[in-house]
Amino acid sequence: MQQLARIIQPWAVIFSALCLAVLLVLLVDARAGREHQAQQTEQSQIQTRIAESWQLLSIKAPGNNGKGSALEYLNEQQVRLAGIDLSAGSNQFRAWLNDIKLAGVDLTDANLGGATMIRADLKSAILVNSQFSEADLSDADLSGADLTDATLNASNLSRVDMSNASLVRTDLSNALLGGAKLTGANLAEANFSDANLIAADLSNADLTLAHLFGAELIGANLTNANLSGVHMIGANLIGAVLNGACGNEGTSYPDGFDPLPVCEE
């Protein structure tokens, strides 16, 4: 019996080890299965909420009605919002999106005409060819945003931060830009006709071929601004700071205004 026990004992140890290994494998597989199921459930919940957010945004109703939260959630999930229409005409009245946080959002070709977006966070947003006519974006942050070919005519952009933004060919005619920050912005061919730019900061901005017909630039800061080919006939530049600003032979000035030094190429 002792000899039999000596023979069986090593095999018993091996068998126990094998059983333990199998048990560990089963436990690991079970845990992995639970984690996979949890991930699938989470993804399903995300997709459901994305669908619900889109459905909410498609409802034609004025005000907010949860649309602000829906937009924020979709942006958090990196969903493109290109072409969305939340304009006053489409929603029966203006959308109320004050304090909305949409940094980095893609709103290419979107229509938010007439929307109220006071203090909106649109840092580095993609707003190419978007429509913001008559919208209220006062105190909003649009620093680093791309507004190429966007339409913001008659909009309220008082004290807005558009520093280092791209506003190439952007329509800002009749817009309120009092106290706006446009430092380092690319404003080439932008339309500021009859816009209010009182005390706005356009230092180091590129205004090449921009239109400033009848614009109010009282007390504006145009230090080191490039005004090559800018049309400023009828503009009010009383008290404007033009230190280091330059133009060229294509720059047109208000009556009685001395031409600026020619910009270096």
Describe this structure in words.
This protein has 265 residues and is an all-alpha fold. It has a domain at 3-58. The protein is 25% helix and 0% strand. Helix 1 (2-58) crosses helix 2. It is elongated and about 110 Å long. It starts with a helix and ends in a 189-residue tail after the last helix.
Describe, in short, the structure shown.
This protein is mostly helical and 265 residues long. It is 25% helix and 0% strand.
User: How big is the Rg?
Assistant: 30 Å
Residues in helix, %? 25-40%
The largest sheet is: none
Helix tally equals 2
Stretches with pLDDT under 50, minimum 5 residues: none
Mean pLDDT: 88
Beta-strand segment tally? 0
Structural class by SSE content: mainly alpha
Termini Cα gap: 104 Å
Overall body shape: elongated
- In quaternary terms, these chains amount to single chain
Task: Output the helix-strand order.
Answer: HH
| Beta-strand content bin | under 5%
Essential attributes:
265 residues
Topology:
Blueprint: H1 2-58, H2 67-76
